[in-house]
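Batch 3, record 17
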Amino acid sequence: MSESTGSGVQAPSAATDDDQVRAVELAVEAVLFAAAEPVEPRDLKAACEDMGEVDQALLEQALGRLQERYQDRAIELVRSAGGYRFRVRSRFSATVQAAQPERPARLSRALLETLAIIAYRQPVTRAEIEAVRGVAVSSGIMRTLQEREWVRVVGHKEVPGRPALYATTRGFLDDLGLKRLEDLPPLDQIRDLADVASDAGLSLTPPETDEDAGPGTNQRLELDVAGPEPAPPTRSS
Amino acid sequence: MSESTGSGVQAPSAATDDDQVRAVELAVEAVLFAAAEPVEPRDLKAACEDMGEVDQALLEQALGRLQERYQDRAIELVRSAGGYRFRVRSRFSATVQAAQPERPARLSRALLETLAIIAYRQPVTRAEIEAVRGVAVSSGIMRTLQEREWVRVVGHKEVPGRPALYATTRGFLDDLGLKRLEDLPPLDQIRDLADVASDAGLSLTPPETDEDAGPGTNQRLELDVAGPEPAPPTRSS
Amino acid sequence: MDTRDELNAVSDPPATAETGADGEVLYRVHGEPVAELPADLYIPPDALEVFLDSFEGPLDLLLYLIRRQNLDILAIPIAEITRQYMAYIEVMRALRLELAGEYLVMAALLAEIKSRMLLPRPKEAETDEDADPRMALIRQLQEYEQFKTAAERLDALPRMDRDVFAAGASVEALEGPPPPGPTMDELMEALAAVMHRASLMAHHHVSTEQLSVRERMSSILDSLHPERFTDFVALLLAAEGRQGVVVSFLAVLELTKAGLIEWGQSEPYSPIRLRRRGTPVDDEGGESA
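Prediction for the assembled complex:
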């Protein structure tokens, strides 16, 4: 298309573009409402494949319009780790709950603590979880977490017995409406052992000396090594 | 309100009405999008109960607006046997399909577990299913099971909120090639299967006694209700 | 606190009576354990078991004991904490709560720390752990508390299906190749997994008979109306033979027990009639576009 055509052609061209955006918008809308889970941008593009070239810009334009379209509705278009989804706006949660009287069961503290350790320490073995909690972690909890698709085995630690290494999934982030692991609330900072020592009126060597110990003995020190970056300390006592 | 006041009062009054219609419209929208199955008009009214008196006329007005609102969208508001619901318009069939590049060859574990529990425990509420599974059952799964016509609502439990009672259908039996439900293997046999699996070191290791309460301690209580008392789990190792 | 008392507290847990310096009393009356819990926390006797059962483990219990006294973890008064810990263990034992081995391991550790603190320290071997035997425990407690707090925050985040809800629409109108159906193997495997998880293994006696009752419950419930009574006898189909009648009867009993149906009789010796409890479900309506 030559540029000499002027506005006489520009207008229809713009209209065509607009039609295309609208077509993509509706296709995306259909896919998102049909899906039970968040949908990745890649799959959204695949849904529009018979509409010609749908590039990132066009997709984003369509998503933007969709978002706008539901601006003042009861639902909203959100993005979390697994992609895009529609969800009911939180101010209507009570309304939905009133219509769905059965509350999901509360999660036990044992399960939540296990989940928290996996989330912040991943990848982590069951023995390491147990070392932190001070009690055995039941198979039931590990299986429930996996069944709920919040946790999965990502590998095996190369130590005797090759214990499974657990990590959280995208579904875990999706269920909490998070985009990435770093969006989790930060862990409280543990006070340095040197401080501990000086508080206790002792002179101590720093804990690094222990780091070379086997998996049995140094579990407590792995804190500094693994896991997502502990964000700025929010010390709540 | 006397009729002599004229339009000066009429206008604000209309506006207030309009606000109310809009409030009902949004509440209904939230409930319908979150629901696993069609919602009966009176449940819709119940969801709006904190907005003052919502009569049939008001509800219908709100539903009418909602229908209009989605007139040229990818979804439509429809009324069917069980009530109102949103559904994706059929002309988006290919689009929705294209968004699922690799069609799952088998059903998800969560869906199968839910289906199995309904088959053996029917009629059963969603909360009861959750208590047995130990994890939440999403609206999406319940919706899918009903749309595939394997499961249907056979009534409502007369407890606060009147949760739906689910049962399997004729179609479920047909798809499995069974004449009647009792042709399903007895639970004993499944227990043996589970034992074999755990003996073989598969993922089905038996749960441990303590700590096991996935969704809190009331899991066990729920089970008590559902059947004979749960004996200490058989530790087969 | 006198070191001899500390030692006694460990080697001789409060089996009969012990009064601590802070006035905490833990004793038995007629063999029944009675715990007078700290003033900052009133716990009705009935709730004691629940209270003790609610600890997630020995670290959790220790943390509670430390926090209750508003103490810094870094300055655990080992002797006092050990005494209280042992007291709680004793109550758990007396109430026959399932006392996990971890609690006893912790008791042993506390005792060890105490004893080591009483010993004169060899000057030469002064690494951190040796310098103060509390160090390892303190670190463990700190770390546990860190994750305990993290778990609470995790639970407080808005969660799908509890606090927020996905918005979806029916895909019934869509056409396409039929999705896979369930196979018997898949179904059984899934159920076996659930049963393991939910410790359902006690249901040895659920037989095919009961399953037919379950099915009948569904169909009877479906056939009953909330507004209209149905003749009870009409539900018992002679064509099904004796077994069919028994199944229907059991199903009706089960439904009654579950509070799903109600019985009615207009006068003595008149037919027994049933109806579904509750208000009617809307009748079929036409679909609007």
